[in-house]
Amino acid sequence: MPTFARSVAPFLRAGRIALRRPTASNPLLEAIGRGQNAVRVVDTCRGMAVAFQRKKPHINVGTIGHVDHGKTTLTAAITKVQAEKGFANFLEYGAIDKAPEERKRGITISSAHIEYETENRHYSHVDCPGHADYIKNMITGAANMDGAIIVVAASDGQMPQTREHLLLARQVGVQKIVVFVNKVDAVEDPEMLELVEMEMRELLSTYGFEGDETPIIMGSALCALEGRRPELGVEKINELLKAVDTWIPEPVRDLDKPFLMSVEEVFSIQGRGTVASGRVERGVLKKDSDVELVGKGPTPIKSKITDIETFKKSCDESRAGDNSGLLLRGVKREDVKRGMVITKPGTVTAHKKFLVSMYVLTKEEGGRHTGFHENYRPQIYIRTAGESPSLKTTLLENKSGLLTSRIDEAAAFHWPEGTADPSKMIMPGDNVEMVCDINNPLALEPGQRFNVREGGR
Ligand SMILES: Nc1nc2c(ncn2[C@@H]2O[C@H](COP(=O)(O)OP(=O)(O)OP(=O)(O)O)[C@@H](O)[C@H]2O)c(=O)[nH]1
Ligand SMILES: [Mg+2]
């Protein structure tokens, strides 16, 4: 396996991994022995090497909030304070906002990814832009956060993007928020600070966060960064990180969740039966487990997995991240369709009507040039539903009878009941909540991501 050997070589040289023959007690090497995807194995090696160094749980966080309220300054200040403890590399302000346009305009445009640690945890931190023109970058940055730090300048109080970012954070599934009231060095009036705190608690509750319990820390990122007034600077950064450590919970790892694989392709293997393949989104599936096929029809189809194949080799289990083929007992090939999910029984249900939160890309972002009204009917893409098969599989289909049907999911969007003016237009750049109807039910859960396209855009 030359690719594997090359990729692992640096770790071998560093003495972090010993390359042994596969053994039953070493799943990593067993995996190699089973001929699994080399890329995954290499990733596992990296994971091991890294875990070897830190052994701390990993959490994704980031800074959100209105433009110029001090998100990037705070991010730089955190790295400074943690660098002094040996927990980070100090990144100056200019090393975070480093694109020429960002420097010229003094704003963040694209999200920056930063790393640091605390005593107990390792953090990946995304510093999001606050400017209203770069909402798309904020959404993609926030989409992977387990929790967020919302920065609000004491001098301004909450502003439009304070509110919009909180709403978006909730929409992309961020569970917990910590508030940093910044620029306290520039505010003399204690009543002003009280007011900002009170208004933030109200706003958090409005958007479904725990307004009363959420930690609110008041300080100055600039003082921390410049090493001035420690009572507003470094001490408040320490307080903030303590709040982040305790208030934002460790996420449930994908491997610990109930099994789910979205079907990409369906094959019929002579003498054996129907095989559905795809990438495992979460959980672990053992051979001989009962499963349900959910979506495309009114009721789930029950089945049992009698064999699992990963890269044409039979194995005993399939785990999150694997590309697997599952041999389904008693299921006909034509009953299995791309876009269905194979899950642990009773964990997922299918729906035809649901409420969506949708950001409409602007023309500059590659979206529509004009607005649209309700009853808009684009294509919707949810997991593998709606994707057309790649050219490769289409070609294979002709040669080997591989069955991959192109299923286009047409969706219709309407304003929710009770909307004051249903004739209102939705414009590029808008962030809206609408009701979506699809023809065939699909497996859906709160927070499920989707894309909408029309004419390939
Ligand atoms: N007085 C004072 N000024 C601050 C503080 N923190 C940041 N600033 C200043 O506020 C301005 C904006 O700070 P940034 O960190 O760029 O703000 P931002 O939230 O990252 O802005 P965008 O990324 O463009 O949304 C800069 O001039 C900072 O020096 C603070 O604690 N006190
Ligand atoms: Mg910034």
UniProtKB/TrEMBL annotation:
Residues 56-252 form the Tr-type G domain. InterPro entries: EF-Tu_GTP-bd, EF-Tu_GTPase, EFTu-like_2, EFTU_2, G_TR_CS, P-loop_NTPase, Small_GTP-bd, T_Tr_GTP-bd_dom. Its main location: mitochondrion. Pfam families: GTP_EFTU (PF00009), GTP_EFTU_D2 (PF03144), GTP_EFTU_D3 (PF03143). The keyword Nucleotide-binding applies. CDD domains: EF_Tu, EFTU_II. The keyword Protein biosynthesis applies. Keywords: Elongation factor, GTP-binding, Mitochondrion, Nucleotide-binding, Protein biosynthesis, Transit peptide. This protein promotes the GTP-dependent binding of aminoacyl-tRNA to the A-site of ribosomes during protein biosynthesis. This is Elongation factor Tu. It comes from Trichoglossum hirsutum.
